[in-house]
From TrEMBL:
Predominant place of localization: cytoplasm
Record's keyword terms, sorted: Cytoplasm, Hydrolase, RNA-binding, tRNA-binding
InterPro entries: Daa-tRNA_deacyls_DTD (IPR003732), DTD-like_sf (IPR023509)
PANTHER family: D-AMINOACYL-TRNA DEACYLASE 1, D-TYROSYL-TRNA TYR DEACYLASE
Gene coding for it: dtd
GO molecular function, one term: tRNA binding
Catalytic reaction list: a D-aminoacyl-tRNA + H2O = a tRNA + a D-alpha-amino acid + H(+); glycyl-tRNA(Ala) + H2O = tRNA(Ala) + glycine + H(+)
Subunit structure, interactors included: Homodimer.
Compartment list: Cytoplasm
Top-rank taxon: Bacteria
Name of the featured protein: D-aminoacyl-tRNA deacylase
Function: An aminoacyl-tRNA editing enzyme that deacylates mischarged D-aminoacyl-tRNAs. Also deacylates mischarged glycyl-tRNA(Ala), protecting cells against glycine mischarging by AlaRS. Acts via tRNA-based rather than protein-based catalysis; rejects L-amino acids rather than detecting D-amino acids in the active site. By recycling D-aminoacyl-tRNA to D-amino acids and free tRNA molecules, this enzyme counteracts the toxicity associated with the formation of D-aminoacyl-tRNA entities in vivo and helps enforce protein L-homochirality.
Amino acid sequence: MRVVVQRVSRASVSASDEHFHSIGKGLMILVGVTHNDTTEDVEYLASKIVSLRIFDDEKGVMNLSVKDVDGELMVISQFTLHAKVKKGNRPSYIDAAKHELAVPLYEHLIKRLEDLTGKSVARGVFGAYMDIDMVNAGPVTILIDTHDLK
């Protein structure tokens, strides 16, 4: 499982006239699921994400987590995180998991983040075309791939 975690001052996602979510200060999390991801990957990522010390303390040092600053979370599914670009100019998405595996893991990650923070998590619509607007604060962008740990 691969995530891109971005510290934001605000972010929003719209997928249709009926779907619009926004957050203030917090984390925008893009999630890509691959074929051999499991709930263990989700558990690791959820714990790591809420514990990342990437918010400034009173001395301006990145020493606080999203929980410490009472920040908000937004999770967006993004199969393109597993794009392969080795051959040619058209990316291959063969490493991206099919819906049957990806959707339950995506939903499980959101649930775990809600459990760990005690807050509702804003989200996109899995598999939909979405417009995302965000202000990356810092900028701070962190890539975590659970397969690097195995």
